[in-house]
Design brief:
Layout lengths: L7 H82 L8 H23 L2 E4 L12 E7 L9 E6 L1 E4 L2 E4 L1 E6 L32
Parallel strand pairs: 2-6
Antiparallel strand pairs: 1-4, 3-6, 4-5
Helix pairs in contact: 1-2
């Protein structure tokens, strides 16, 4: 048999080697494509996370800018809301005079519209109910009241409601709290006697003055 015509066994061996080479090359290519796909997926997830973080940061900055822009106006309007509330609290309930009734109705409508404007602009009222836990981040204790039917340190009465603006405290609610149990350990100097010891120290130095 001539050299130009190799035996069938040699042809089969060469063919088997070629098939193995092609299969190995295809396997390497598939592995490379899979690795590339994984890398592209991770990159896409990173881009999506960055886009979400950018969106949240933009929303937060927009809220901050909005809060700073209207905070002074909000503070000024709180006095108006307080005066309307005081006026309604002293309205005679037994007056049959139509003029008085219309006047009271006008004040009530004005107060309702004012609070509606507060809500539309993110200014939320803080008025804890009787028995609610005192929150040093949102409440300011003005006095203690002993011998109440609520737990020691809880809110007894709201003297003046507070407000927060888009999550930022504008004015704490001024409240009366139930006195601590007699004989309890005295708090350290400068400590908030109504602060839960299990809470973090972040609120201990909160300035709740108006």
């Amino acid at each position: 048999m001539s050299e130009d015509n190799p035996p069938p066994e040699a042809s089969r061996e060469f063919g088997d080697d070629a098939d193995a080479f092609i299969a190995a090359a295809e396997a390497d290519q598939i592995a490379a494509l899979k690795a590339e796909a994984v890398g592209l997926k991770e990159q896409a997830l990173r881009y999506a996370a960055e886009a979400e973080n950018t969106k949240r940061r933009a929303e937060r900055e927009a809220n901050d800018a909005r809060a700073y822009a209207i905070q002074k106006v909000a503070r000024d309007l709180l006095g108006v809301a307080d005066n309307l509330a005081r006026a309604l609290a002293h309205v005679p309930g037994d007056s049959a005079d139509p003029a008085v009734k219309n006047f009271v109705l006008g004040i009530e409508m004005t107060e309702k519209e004012l609070h509606g404007a507060f809500d539309r602009n993110g200014l939320k009222r803080i008025a804890p109910a009787r028995g609610d836990k005192f929150d040093p981040h949102r409440h300011q204790a003005m006095m203690e009241l002993p011998g109440t039917d609520v737990a020691a340190g809880a809110v007894v009465e709201v003297m003046q409601p507070g407000y927060d603006l888009l999550g930022r405290l504008v004015r704490p609610a001024m409240v009366v709290v139930a006195a601590k149990v007699a004989g309890a350990e005295a708090p350290m100097a400068g400590a908030n006697p109504y602060r839960d010891s299990a809470e973090d120290e972040a609120g201990a130095n909160l300035d709740t003055r108006t």
